[in-house]
Amino acid sequence: MVLRERQGGVLLLTLNRPEKLNALTAELLESLYQSLKEANQDPSVRAVLLTGAGKAFSAGQDLNEFGEEKPDYEGHLRRYNRVVEALSGLEKPLVVAVNGPAAGAGMSLALWGDLRLAAVGASFTTAFVRIGLVPDSGMSFLLPRLVGLSKAQELLFLSPRLSAEEALALGLVHKVVPAESLLEEALALAQTLAQGPTRAYVLTRKLLLETYRLSLTEALSLEAILQGEAGRTQDHEEGVRAFREKRPPRFQGR
To answer: Which family does the entry's similarity section mention (predicted)?
Structure first.
């Protein structure tokens, strides 16, 4: 199950199978999906923070879930794809705090954070080829965008174990912090985002993801459309007022 805790405008979601390194099951994926859905529906949630319980972020799919049966991967991935679509379409900024190993689909989930922090001692590995599989949960989409095609091929074909510091150098995370202060720093970052112009964050994420498949002309057109939407928000009006009055803006996420 996923633990849910409110910290002001931040919803803290914790993958909670610490005895199994937060390995992913159908039940855990459903719980995460429902948590993200509820976050979208609650206007008082202004940012989401995702982390793992215990010593790991997530070891990826729990292969023991399948027992002796041959997995129906196409069917099973529908559960993952719902979660990935909920993460990519989240109407709030998302911070991910990687507290330990993030492997396979666990690494995929971590990469969907708008901002990603890692604890000293955390690690990342794509893992899929180790069991003869291709990347899933959006890794084939995100990884080359984060590190480039050549490095993505290296990480996927060779599946090295990356330290938090190596992940930082590649741009997989934005900051590495001591393990004992990870949650505190990640929460502070999420609180900062929770006080910001929520809709502008979400539209920016959408713009960045969409422009990879667009021509320059199409990207310029999408910028104009989304700028028009952002320009109709109350937060934009407040930002302009604050600029003219030479004071910090007080955004309400509207």
So the answer is: Belongs to the enoyl-CoA hydratase/isomerase family.
Would you say the C-alpha torsion 59, 61, 65, 67 has a positive or negative sign? negative
* β-bridge partners, 4: 13
179 and 213, same structural domain?
no
Q: Tell me the CATH number at 174.
A: 3.90.226.10
Q: How many domains does the chain have?
A: 2
- C-alpha separations of 10 from 87, 98, 191 in Å: 16, 17, 6
* Gap between the Cα atoms of 140 and 9, Å rounded: 32
Rounded CA separation 122/103 (Å): 11
Beta bridge partners of 103: 125
Q: What is the pLDDT of residues 24-62, one digit of tens each?
A: 999 999 999 999 999 999 999 999 999 999 999 999 998
Structure tokens at 184: 């505190």
- Taking each helix axis from N to C end, the angle separating 234-245 and 198-210, rounded to the nearest 10 degrees, works out to 110
Say which residue the tokens 């008082």 belong to. 44
pLDDT in tens, 107-155: 999 999 999 999 999 999 999 999 899 999 999 999 999 999 999 999 9
The token pair at 162 is 């990356």
CA distances from 117 to 97, 156, 161, 226 (A): 5, 22, 17, 28
CA distance 241 to 80: 43
